[in-house]
Design a protein that fits this description.
It is a single chain. The chain is α/β, with parallel strands linked by helices. The protein folds into two domains: 9-157 and 175-222, HUPs (Rossmann fold, 3-Layer(aba) Sandwich), CATH 3.40.50.620; 267-316, no CATH class. The chain is 50% helix and 9% strand. It has helices spanning 3-30, 48-63, 83-97, 106-110, 114-121, 126-145, 156-169, 172-177, 200-209, 225-240, 244-254, 282-291, 313-318; strands at 39-43, 69-76, 101-105, 149-151, 182-183, 191-192, 267-268, 275-276. Strands 3-2-1-4-6-5 form a six-stranded mixed β-sheet. Helix 2 (48-63) links the parallel strand 1 (39-43) and strand 2 (69-76). It is globular and about 60 Å long. 41% of the residues are buried. Residues 301-326 and 328-332 have low confidence and may be disordered. It binds iron/sulfur cluster (SF4). Iron/sulfur cluster binds at residues 77, 114, 126-127, 130-131, 219, 221-222, 323-324, 327. Residues 77, 114, 126-127, 130-131, 219, 221-222, 323-324, 327 line the site of iron/sulfur cluster. Residues 40-217 form the tRNA(Ile)-lysidine/2-thiocytidine synthase N-terminal domain. It is found in: Cytoplasm. GO terms for molecular function: ATP binding; nucleotidyltransferase activity; tRNA binding.
């Protein structure tokens, strides 16, 4: 390659990095995602989204003096041959980016690894358990780090898929909040998505050309058929209308829920104190089933009655977690 050609290739790359990073910066500033001096945990799975997020956020934090204290927060679901390998990537990221890492494991929190759960329940509802447990594990990890916010690497493609899935499932509660750039503001630790408007393709290109260290193997227990359909549907739409992803997000943002729609009321779990719209939170119901050797108790129609308050069990059984997506990424 000629020197001039090399130079112009480099200039093109620099230009892409600059625009990519500036767009994220504008999203952060425009949506007032952080306040000066906040402690912020980055949900880190070792996958491309969270690795790029950790890298870009530390760059922007330095460049624009956000004044943030950044941490990496990883969840160890206990999936041999998948999470153990991806955690090695996060441990390298800890050194590469100079960010302290906290790992919380399902085994420590719940007494079960995903390997053990799959052994008991098989591959059918594994992501329901995993998604529910992960959501709570992230909050518990964030509390350990005493952070003010948790950021995740959800990108525009993920959000558009989630809008479509929530419409298909008739999940009005999730539909109403899935496009919010910050959620859980009324809870202890709000969560933000700085990549809300960033296409997955851009993230892949950025990670590739920056030669970032990330893990790209899929979870060995990933079925994800339903999300797969939504993903294919959106890919088809995008071929016909390139801005389909942003349009779907916009549609999701503009949905208005009828005031007559009954929404779940938030309280706390009587057993563990975690936020819950029921007497027991989902994690406690699922755990009870596992510990009693009746793992379907928390997912199917109730046969027995653990706490006498399963009115919405059917609704919950169908709400296969949005967390279960391509699942290297720590979703929420
Ligand atoms: Fe858990 Fe994701 Fe694997 Fe499902 S695909 S078992 S949610 S890590």
């Amino acid at each position: 390659m000629e020197a001039g050609e090399e130079k112009s290739k480099k200039a093109g790359g620099e230009c892409f990095y600059e625009v990519f990073e500036e767009e994220i910066h504008q999203v952060i500033v425009g949506n007032r995602l952080f306040k000066f001096g906040e402690r912020v945990a980055i949900g880190a799975s070792g996958g491309k989204d969270s690795s790029v997020l950790a890298y870009v956020l530390s760059e922007l934090n330095r460049r624009h003096s956000y004044g943030l204290d950044l941490f990496l927060l990883s969840i160890d679901e206990g999936i041999t041959g998948y999470r153990d390998d991806s955690l090695e990537t996060v441990k390298r990221n800890e050194v590469q980016y100079g960010l302290p890492l906290q790992i919380v494991s399902y085994k420590d929190l719940y007494g079960w690894t995903m390997d053990e759960i799959v052994k008991m329940i098989g591959l059918k509802n594994n992501c329901t358990f995993c998604g529910v447990f992960r959501r709570q594990a992230l909050d518990r990890g964030a509390a350990l780090l005493k952070v003010d916010k948790l950021v995740t690497g959800h990108n525009a493609d993920d959000i558009a898929e989630t809008v479509v899935l929530n419409i298909l499932r008739g999940d009005i509660a999730r539909l109403s909040r899935c496009t919010s750039i910050t959620t859980g503001e009324d809870g202890p630790i709000p969560r933000c998505k700085p990549f809300k408007y960033t296409y997955e393709k851009e993230i892949v290109m950025y990670a590739y050309f920056k030669k970032l260290d990330y893990f790209s193997t899929e979870c060995i227990y990933s079925p994800n058929a339903y999300r797969g359909f939504a993903c294919e549907f959106i890919n088809d739409l995008e071929r016909l209308r390139p801005r389909a992803i942003l349009d779907i997000i916009k549609s999701g943002e503009d949905f208005r829920i009828a005031t007559t729609t009954k929404m779940p009321e938030q309280g706390t779990c009587e057993r563990c104190g975690y936020i819950s719209s029921q007497k027991w939170c989902k994690a406690c119901v699922l755990l009870e089933g596992l510990n009693r050797g009746l793992p379907k108790m928390g997912i199917g129609r109730p046969r027995g009655n653990v706490n006498g308050d399963y009115k919405d069990i059917k609704a919950r059984s169908t709400a296969k977690t949005i967390e279960s997506k391509q699942c290297g990424s720590l979703d929420f």
